[in-house]
Amino acid sequence: MKISGKSTIDAPRDQVWEALNNMEVLARIVPGCERLEQVGENEYEGTVKIGIQSIKGTYSGKIRLEDIEPPRHYKLVAAGRSANGVVDGTGTVDLEELEDGKTLLTYGGDAQIGGTLASVGQRLIEGASKQLINQSLKALVEQIKQRNAPPAEAAAPAPAEETPEPATAAPEPAASSAPSAVAEAEQAAPAAAPEASTPTTTETPAAPAKAAPPSFERRTVVVPSDEQLKPESIMRGMVEDALQERPWVPWVFVAFLLGILFGRAGRK
């Protein structure tokens, strides 16, 4: 199964690239994503629950990014498993900076489907996949808007309490301590001389070599239930997209209902 498409995003290319490489953003734009974990350099694992009937199920998958060329291109290799079947595929994402400050996102991929999913039908799976991708792109735009929104004004800090400065004792006259200081210095001078003449050296043990830290930071993002891209949100988005592409559909439905009502009235 092959799939491809384009989408214009109202944001600069650098911001789109940054969002596509942010785990917090990715976990919230993948439909039904419940958990996303980075397990290696540019390698991720996750759990996705999809509620669309033709591909309904809970999937455990792995994604690896390759051929990374910031901020314009990368290739992804994905593998998913569920009780309904398996999905293995590769895809590419390309970002082109437009003159008006927007970004043209072009995607393409090829997937192999096995198990029960293969019996659903290629057309149904292609249609469902395109709808899921479209809803993911809409969620990506919303995430970029939220990240660019100005932060709320911070509350004015409470005035600091004034603490009284501690009273300082009056300095003692210097004249009274001068003779005693001179006497102590004369007594200490002979004792200090021998110590200075016999310097001692101490060897410090070499510090043990530390292991090199990993080139990535292992992270896990668990998406709260109220922030997941749920099936009802996907279905609502699909209906909105269909109405935008075919604005005449509601009028056909209204005309159909009126025809039924007038037909019944005529029979009476």
From TrEMBL:
Compositional bias per record (Low complexity), positions renumbered to this chain: 149-215
Keywords per UniProt: Membrane, Transmembrane, Transmembrane helix
Source organism, top-level taxon: Bacteria
Any Pfam family the entry gives: COXG
InterPro entries (alphabetical): CO_DH_gsu, START-like_dom_sf
Disordered: annotated segments: 148-221
TM ranges: 248-266
Protein known as: Carbon monoxide dehydrogenase
Organism: Kouleothrix aurantiaca
